[in-house]
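Summary of Year 1 activities. Much of the first year was spent building the evaluation harness for sequence design. The harness presents a backbone, in tokenized form, and records the residue chosen at every position. We chose the following record to illustrate the format because it has been used consistently in internal testing since the harness was completed.
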């Protein structure tokens, strides 16, 4: 029988500059409708920048919150989640970003009202956390062309899938591939000039693009996906498969699962962590911390085991 976890102290943290949050009141009104009930102390705060958000989270944890709701995208989830790793505080996500890979994996609707309702009656689940060195990530990390195109996307004034596609086309012709020497749980291999080299904790990049269909959030492992350089038409065909979940059927694409991986490259390049570029040296160590983050997901979400259901307060108004 699952344990019931009552909600008492809940902080909502939002960032009005998130890619999909042109009007933050849409998300906040939806949360008020489904979460502002008798027995729950619901507090709203704005994250003005990453450091401000981290400071407010630490203060809230010290006050004894049991749940933190973030209205934002994968980058903000990364900032918030890093502060909650190992803590007895559950993270819930109202998607308001450009890609929303975390939300996509767990089936959290992009419509704020639907997301707020499903999470209010959802379940709590412990998920793994990936690390690139000492930097955590919760969705994906990318090391090749799939990281380089983020640079072009970040410079675009427009958000959504189209700028990613345009950035990808441009950077396909400007990206200089390099060889990777990989030590994968003790096994040595060389991956020659891949176009895509992604480490996945969850299944997708965002926007419905599924890069690692077999990735599980609670199996104590990460997935590595390597895509070789292809001719443009072949690459386009593979990209289409990202959106129907059959990318793993492409013969040229190789996948592995691991707990520890050491990556050595010819040159240092930034990598992508949950949609944000991070400068890294030639050598990077990837590890996984099992069951390190408590999250709230829809009750029927796939891709992991159910741990605890959220109990409605006995005093909740009907």
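For this record, the design step produced the sequence shown next.
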């Amino acid at each position: 029988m699952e344990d019931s976890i009552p909600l008492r102290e809940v902080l909502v943290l939002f960032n009005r500059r998130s890619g999909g949050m042109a009007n933050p009141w849409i998300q906040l009104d939806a949360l008020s409708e489904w979460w502002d009930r008798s027995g729950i102390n619901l507090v709203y705060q704005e994250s003005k920048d990453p450091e401000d958000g981290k400071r407010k989270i630490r203060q809230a944890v010290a006050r004894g919150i049991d749940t933190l709701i973030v209205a934002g995208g994968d980058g903000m989830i990364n900032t918030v989640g890093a502060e909650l790793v190992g803590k007895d505080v559950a993270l819930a996500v109202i998607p308001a970003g450009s890609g929303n890979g975390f939300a996509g994996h767990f089936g959290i609707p992009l419509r704020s009202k639907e997301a707020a309702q499903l999470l209010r009656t959802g379940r709590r689940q412990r998920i793994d956390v990936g690390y690139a060195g000492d930097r955590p990530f919760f969705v994906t990390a990318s090391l090749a062309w799939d990281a380089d195109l983020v640079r072009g996307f970040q410079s675009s004034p427009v958000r959504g899938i189209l700028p990613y596609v345009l950035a990808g086309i441009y950077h396909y012709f400007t990206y200089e591939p390099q060889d990777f020497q990989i030590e994968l749980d003790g096994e040595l291999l060389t991956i020659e000039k891949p176009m895509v080299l992604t480490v996945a904790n969850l299944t997708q990049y965002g926007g419905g693009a599924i890069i690692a269909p077999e990735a599980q959030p609670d199996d104590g492992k990460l997935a590595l996906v390597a895509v070789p350089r292809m001719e443009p038409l072949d690459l386009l065909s593979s990209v289409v498969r990202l959106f129907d979940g059959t990318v793993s059927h492409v013969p040229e694409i190789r996948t592995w699962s691991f707990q520890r991986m050491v990556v050595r490259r010819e040159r240092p390049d930034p990598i992508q962590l949950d949609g944000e570029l991070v400068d890294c040296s030639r050598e990077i160590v990837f590890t996984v911390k099992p069951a390190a983050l408590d999250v709230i997901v829809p009750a029927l979400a796939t891709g992991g085991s159910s741990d605890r259901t959220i109990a409605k307060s006995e005093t909740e108004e009907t």
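The chain has a mean pLDDT of 84. Quantitative recovery figures across the full test set are reported in Table 2.
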